[in-house]
Structures are given as C-alpha cells and as structure tokens.
Amino acid sequence: MSSDFDVETVRRDFPILSRQINGHPLVYLDSSNTSQKPRTVIDTVAEHYAKHNANVARAMHTLGAEATAAFEGARARIADFIAAAEPEEVVFTKNASESLNLAANTLGSRLGPGDEVVISVLEHHSNLVPWQMVCERTGATLRWFDVTEEGRLDLDKAEQEHLINEHTKVVSIAWVSNVLGTINPVARIAEMAHAVDAVMVIDGSQGVPHLPTDVTALGGDLLAFTGHKMLGPTGIGVLWGRRELLDELPPFLGGGEMIGVVTMEKSTWAEVPHKFEAGTPPIAQAVGLGTAVDYLDTLGMDAIAAHDHEITSYALGLLGDLDFVRILGPKQAVDRGSAISFTVDGVHPHDLMQLLDSRGVAVRGGHHCAAPLHQRFCVQSSTRASSYLYTTREEIDALRDGLVWAHDFFTGKVKARQ
C-alpha cells in the first residue's frame, strides 16, 4: 500500500463517520450497498444547486452555460477515470440498473429465436432480470455459467457444455460479485465472446469503485457502473460503450434532447451519447460524481485497491477463525473483492443485522439482490460486511466481537445487553 494512504486522515473527510449509533461509534460495513460521501462531494452538489442550477443544453443564459460546462466536464473526467477513448463513450443514466436495462433492451433489438444470451448464476438481479425479460420477449434463450463450491465461475463446466458458441449473441458478466467478492476473469470471457462475434457486457458496479479501471484492458464492449458506490451521489449511473457499438444501437428512451429532427411522421436521433439521454439528466449528481472521481484519483486507485486487499485479508482471517461462521465465496483474498457474505449458526441474518446495529455496526442481511446465487449455496439469505477505503482494522475487530456476542446471545450463552 502507498505510504501516502493514511486511513485515519481519509476518515476525517467523511462527516458521517463521526456519528454515534445507539451510543456506539458508527462502524459502517455496508459499502457494497452504498458508499459514504466525502465532504468535497457534499459541498460540490450543494454549491451547484446554490450557484449554478439550470438545465443543460437548452438554456443559453449564463447559468445554463455554467451547468452545461460542469455536466460535460464531469463526463470528460469520468471518461478519463476509466481510460475511455473519448467522453462521448460515456452515457449518463440514473444507476447501474438502468445502464444494464439500456444494454439489454438495445442489444435485444437484435435478438430472435435461436439466439442465446449468457450470464452467470452469481449475477445481481439487475444483470439477470433484464435479460430474462428480453429473452422472453424475443424468443432468445438465456444460459448461464455455474460457480464452483469456492464461488468462482466454473469455466471447465462451461467449456464442456459449449456454453459460449455460435448461437451466443451477448455475454453479460459481473466483474466482481456483490455477494461472494469473486473477481471474475472478464477479459478472458470477453475473448471467448468475441471469438463467436458476441457482444460482451460487464457489470462493473463492484469493480470500478475499488480497482483501477481501463476499459480496453477489461475487454468488454459495454461497461455499467453506478456513482453511489464510488463516493458519488445517488441517482447517477454510467454506461460506457465502444463508440462504434453505441452508434449502431437504437435509442432506449424517447423524449427531449435525444432527438435530431422531429416531425409528426418520424424522428431522427442525436449523436451519442445524447441519443441515450432522454429528458433532463441527473445534472448535479453527475457533477458530484466528477468530484468523487477527483477524490479517488487523489488517493490513487492502486492505493485504494491495496487498502481494500489488506482489510479484506484481515477480515477473512478473523471471521474464518470463528467456527460458527460460514463464509460464502473465496476464503482467501486472492482475486477477491471486499464484500464478505456469511451465515452464523443459529442466527437469522435479519436478527443478526439488528443486533449488530444495536452496537453501531452497520451490515446488510438478506439475499443482496442475488437470490439464485443463495439458492446455489443452499441458503435463503446471508449477512454481508463490505469495507471500503475508509474502513479500519478496529472496525473489523468490532464486527468480530459483535458476531461472538450475537451468537452467544442467540444460542443462550449470554443475555443481550447494549
């Protein structure tokens, strides 16, 4: 890890981390759900509304020009952050789910009976349900990678089943699992997809916030991610796409600003990315996301990834030593992200989540929008602890102590006390 990365200094940039919850210091371990925001992002959004608020592209007055410059400047910053070839390859949406729906519906216009779409059993519902809907509508067939008991994509089984073949038109895979933490070999899978002339879509929601991102190295044709998991505001997502592909795809939504010429008989479309940005976009949110990537760049994505790795290794070690805890996914921090999902013997995840919250520890309980993956591991739900650039070892210690306390309470060893 970079010697310049000081987690205690970083934490001072996040006002919410000074909160007390139920009389305890907040231990925020739900960053895979949404990240906390540094003061600079909060201030940027507030300043935009206070001083520069106007609609983009339409208003020719000073405020309109300022808003448009800030909005398009954010697009350029984000393009640079993911090493896109040009800002026009960055399409703003309201979240990663909308980005993936945009991908599914526009690519779905090419699908028909006999065509196949390949996903995996570890996908977030946002990279499963849209493809189900498109396949049902078009007659295409949905197929998927299984996972091994360790929680990694079963590439050998996929090869034996000829999963990606001449009928495959789209492959859509998460870069990093939001449940298992598994980092998938998306570049290798992209090569397999491109070998049969299929389009490769990558759900980068859990990857882009944590790992250095180069869209060319990832190998995909489309990449979806969301701002609120990478220190940015809610209500802003991104779909990056190769310019040639974006030019070919039809619009997803119709309305203002995505048009070229409109008559009562027909319409033509604006150039990308505006072809995919109907109506008033998330302006302040995009500007805030631009500031968020500035903050991430200042810390350095390599340093952030190293910190994530250190905290994840430490957490896996502590949780792995508890004989009543079952970790889902890889047990070692190798090709693994920071989300750690687990079950605790004798304790329902919802009960565990509430009891931990009584001690100020924020985790998530449920199926984490990945019900089929939980079914694959024969569990109804799990508890997930997810760290980020502001997480400390002491917070992982607090999680471990809370788990011991909660398990002892639910198994009758001690009475609950705050």
How would you sum up the major sheet? 7 strands, mixed
Radius of gyration using CA atoms only: 22 Å
Mean pLDDT: 96
Overall shape = globular
Task: Tell me the helix content.
Answer: 25-40%
pLDDT under 50 segments (min length 5)? none
SS element count, helices:
14
**Secondary-structure class:** alpha/beta
Between the first and last Cα atoms, what is the distance in angstroms?
Answer: 36 Å
Strand line-up across the major sheet: 4-10-9-8-7-5-6
Count of extended strands? 17
Strand content: 15-25%
Descriptive account of the structure:
- With 418 residues, this protein is α/β, with parallel strands linked by helices.
- Helices cover 38% and strands 17% of the residues.
- It contains 14 helices and 17 strands.
- It has a 7-stranded mixed β-sheet, with helices on both faces.
- Strand 8 (199-203), helix 8 and strand 9 form a beta-alpha-beta unit.
- The longest helix is centred in the N-terminal third of the chain and has 20 residues, at 62-81.
- The radius of gyration is 22 Å and the shape is globular.
- The mean pLDDT is 96.
Q: What does this entry show, briefly?
A:
This protein has helices at 7-11, 39-52, 62-81, 96-108, 129-138, 155-160, 186-195, 215-218, 243-248, 283-299, 301-320, 349-357, 371-376, 393-410, and strands spanning 20-21, 24-25, 27-28, 90-93, 116-120, 141-145, 168-174, 199-203, 222-226, 237-241, 259-262, 267-269, 325-328, 339-344, 361-362, 364-366, 382-386. The chain has 418 residues and is of the alpha/beta class.
